[in-house]
Design a protein that fits this description.
With 85 residues, the protein is α+β, with helices and mostly antiparallel strands. Helices cover 20% and strands 22% of the residues. The protein contains 3 helices and 3 strands; from the N terminus they run H-E-E-H-H-E.
Length: 85
Protein backbone atom coordinates (compact mmCIF):
# COMPACT_ATOMS: atom_id res chain seq x y z
CA UNK A 1 0.00 0.00 0.00
CA UNK A 2 1.35 3.39 -0.97
CA UNK A 3 0.06 6.74 0.08
CA UNK A 4 1.36 9.61 2.10
CA UNK A 5 0.90 10.37 5.78
CA UNK A 6 0.77 14.13 5.05
CA UNK A 7 -2.69 15.73 5.39
CA UNK A 8 -2.08 17.97 2.37
CA UNK A 9 -1.29 14.89 0.25
CA UNK A 10 -4.43 13.17 1.53
CA UNK A 11 -6.49 16.26 0.56
CA UNK A 12 -4.82 16.27 -2.86
CA UNK A 13 -6.19 12.75 -3.41
CA UNK A 14 -9.70 14.19 -2.99
CA UNK A 15 -10.43 13.21 0.60
CA UNK A 16 -12.29 15.82 2.63
CA UNK A 17 -12.65 14.34 6.15
CA UNK A 18 -11.14 11.95 8.68
CA UNK A 19 -13.38 9.23 10.04
CA UNK A 20 -12.79 7.46 13.35
CA UNK A 21 -14.59 4.95 15.55
CA UNK A 22 -15.54 5.75 19.16
CA UNK A 23 -15.91 2.39 20.91
CA UNK A 24 -17.55 3.92 24.01
CA UNK A 25 -20.30 5.73 22.05
CA UNK A 26 -20.35 3.03 19.36
CA UNK A 27 -20.50 5.57 16.55
CA UNK A 28 -18.33 6.80 13.72
CA UNK A 29 -17.06 10.34 14.24
CA UNK A 30 -16.12 12.56 11.29
CA UNK A 31 -13.88 15.66 11.25
CA UNK A 32 -13.05 17.90 8.27
CA UNK A 33 -9.42 17.82 7.12
CA UNK A 34 -9.49 21.64 6.90
CA UNK A 35 -10.02 21.86 10.66
CA UNK A 36 -7.19 19.44 11.43
CA UNK A 37 -4.77 21.21 9.10
CA UNK A 38 -5.49 24.45 10.94
CA UNK A 39 -5.05 22.91 14.40
CA UNK A 40 -1.93 20.87 13.64
CA UNK A 41 -0.09 22.27 10.62
CA UNK A 42 2.72 20.10 9.34
CA UNK A 43 1.71 16.96 11.25
CA UNK A 44 0.82 13.75 9.47
CA UNK A 45 -2.10 11.38 9.97
CA UNK A 46 -0.08 9.03 12.18
CA UNK A 47 0.84 11.91 14.52
CA UNK A 48 -2.70 13.29 14.72
CA UNK A 49 -4.72 10.05 15.01
CA UNK A 50 -3.65 9.10 18.59
CA UNK A 51 -4.56 12.60 19.79
CA UNK A 52 -8.16 12.54 18.57
CA UNK A 53 -10.87 12.23 21.21
CA UNK A 54 -14.64 11.87 21.02
CA UNK A 55 -16.49 15.14 21.62
CA UNK A 56 -19.31 13.28 23.35
CA UNK A 57 -17.51 11.07 25.88
CA UNK A 58 -13.90 12.38 25.60
CA UNK A 59 -12.70 8.81 25.00
CA UNK A 60 -10.13 7.84 22.37
CA UNK A 61 -11.14 7.66 18.72
CA UNK A 62 -9.65 4.61 16.99
CA UNK A 63 -9.41 3.29 13.43
CA UNK A 64 -8.85 6.75 11.94
CA UNK A 65 -8.85 6.93 8.14
CA UNK A 66 -9.52 9.49 5.40
CA UNK A 67 -13.00 9.51 3.89
CA UNK A 68 -15.22 11.42 1.48
CA UNK A 69 -18.29 13.32 2.59
CA UNK A 70 -20.53 15.43 0.46
CA UNK A 71 -21.78 15.21 -3.13
CA UNK A 72 -20.43 12.21 -5.00
CA UNK A 73 -18.99 10.53 -1.93
CA UNK A 74 -20.72 7.20 -2.61
CA UNK A 75 -18.75 6.68 -5.83
CA UNK A 76 -15.41 7.76 -4.32
CA UNK A 77 -12.40 5.53 -4.64
CA UNK A 78 -10.85 4.13 -1.45
CA UNK A 79 -7.69 5.52 0.10
CA UNK A 80 -4.49 3.76 -0.99
CA UNK A 81 -2.59 4.45 2.24
CA UNK A 82 -2.37 2.35 5.40
CA UNK A 83 -5.77 0.89 6.42
CA UNK A 84 -5.92 2.72 9.73
CA UNK A 85 -3.67 5.13 11.54
Amino acid sequence: MGGSDDLAAIRAQGFTHLEGWCAACRVVKVMPLETLEGLAPGLGLRAIAPRLTCRTCRGPVTEVKPCHHGPGSFAARPWDGPPFA
